[in-house]
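wait is this the right file?? whatever heres the structure
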């Protein structure tokens, strides 16, 4: 019996001895020297050349996610590099594995929340009422509202107003950003706590304005944070701190045994 194989197809790229073609453009002739990294990422994902306005907003999205100091992902990358300096890629991968529902990956959660809110709202919904319903649903389930609150940045995450301003300046201040702002205000009112819209909430809303599927939004954090982690590893190779972190944690964690 002859086994039938399904056709497989990719429209992203192909290579030949004399050329590499990506989304119909020649890498050497049409892309190199013509696109910056953010614009190329947008082109790779969508197959479209970003407008100047889209370029400014999308590059802001990626740059926001590159760096946030000595975060768990940066520490994980540094510790892994200390143990396996011959494998830089493993150290980067270790850091990226920590991007989830608490750190960076909340861009995905906020984008999903906004899409689903509008799916159930009908045409031309009252945004304040929709925000109240969304917040009430999360509170009833005792779930953290994605994109709301920050352990460090209070009363305002400084990245958020700047991101919203960039979106507005470039004609991308639409219904998703408006709803995110309403959700932020309602979450603060309902909880009585200082709960700013954090950067991932702003970024999730902006990604919705672009129309990106929520399932891919975390990938922007992966792309961007990889750049930041390479920077941390470079610094680690020049001025190591990972072993000091290890010894400090060990000493603190076992102090009760030694005392």
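ok assuming it is, sequence goes like this
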């Amino acid at each position: 019996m002859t086994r039938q194989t399904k056709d497989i197809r990719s429209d992203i790229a192909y290579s030949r001895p004399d050329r590499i073609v990506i989304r119909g453009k020649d890498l050497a002739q049409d892309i190199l020297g013509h696109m910056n990294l953010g614009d190329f990422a947008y082109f790779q994902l969508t197959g479209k050349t970003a407008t100047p306005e889209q370029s400014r907003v999308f590059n802001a999205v990626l740059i926001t996610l590159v760096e946030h100091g000595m975060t768990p992902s940066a520490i994980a990358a540094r510790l892994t590099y200390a143990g396996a300096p011959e494998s830089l890629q493993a150290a980067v991968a270790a850091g990226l594995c920590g991007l989830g529902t608490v750190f960076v990956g909340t861009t995905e959660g906020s984008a999903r929340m906004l899409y689903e809110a509008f799916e159930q709202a009908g045409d031309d919904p009252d945004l304040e009422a929709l925000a109240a319903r969304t917040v009430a649903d999360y509170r009833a389930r005792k779930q953290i509202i994605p994109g709301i609150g920050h352990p460090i940045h209070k009363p305002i995450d400084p990245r958020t107003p700047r991101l919203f301003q960039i979106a507005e300046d470039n004609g991308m201040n639409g219904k998703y950003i408006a709803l995110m702002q309403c959700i932020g205000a309602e979450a603060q009112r309902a909880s009585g706590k200082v709960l700013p819209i954090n950067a991932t909430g702003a970024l999730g809303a902006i990604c919705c304005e672009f129309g990106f599927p929520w399932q891919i939004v975390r990938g922007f954090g992966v792309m961007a944070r990889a750049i930041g982690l390479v920077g941390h590893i470079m610094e680690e190779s020049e001025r190591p701190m990972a072993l000091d972190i290890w010894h400090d944690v060990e000493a603190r964690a076992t102090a009760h045994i030694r005392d």
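The first strand starts at residue 13 and ends at 16. so i think its the right one actually
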